[in-house]
Amino acid sequence: MLYLTLLLGALLFAGVAMTINEGLWSNTISLLLIMIAGLMALVGGIPLGTWGLAQTGQDVSFTWYYVFASIWVVFYLSLTLMRVVADRVSCTQVRFLPIIDKIAGPLMGAFVAIMFTSFAAFTLWRVPIMAGEWDRAKASETQISAFSYAQTPFYNVAKSFLKSEDIDSPLIPVGK
């Protein structure tokens, strides 16, 4: 679990470094697309993973492998497709006052990095760790707390969406 926690920290750092100079418009579009692609992956990845498991005839103990891979494949494909469409549709960037773009651009870039890291933490925590693949009992309280805090932004978005659309997901129990 220590290495996974360090991986999340590196992912957050890389996300901030990659988006810091993108500007407010591009980072805002990226944030929206990451949230939408994450929701699409959550809703579409689980059935795709269980379908893939059924098609291969593997043992049920391999379910988390298929679900985890399917969630990330759906996330990657939907994010890539939506980004290409968004870049084609929005040929002209919205121009903001330079001071607003200088301040809000990096701030929105930090939000993009946080949401992407949160999606990664959410998928790691809810699929392989909850499946018992990694022993949570051996993890320190700090590591468990880091995962809990890291997954919270995407968890809140996903829970709100699933509850509003009345969608049942095995990864997020939504109370009626």
In short:
The chain is mostly helical and 176 residues long. Helices cover 77% and strands 0% of the residues. The two termini are 33 Å apart.
Tally of separate helices: 5
- Hey, roughly how much beta strand do the residues contain? under 5%
**Which series of helices and strands comes N to C?**
HHHHH
Radius of gyration: 18 Å
Span between termini: 33 Å
Coarse structural class: mainly alpha
Mean pLDDT over all positions = 87
In helices, the fraction of residues equals: over 70%
| Shape annotation | globular
Uncertain residue segments: none
What does this structure look like?
The protein is mainly alpha-helical and 176 residues long. The chain is 77% helix and 0% strand. The protein has helices at 2-19, 24-56, 63-89, 98-129, 141-165. The chain is globular, with a radius of gyration of 18 Å. It starts with a helix and ends in an 11-residue tail after the last helix.
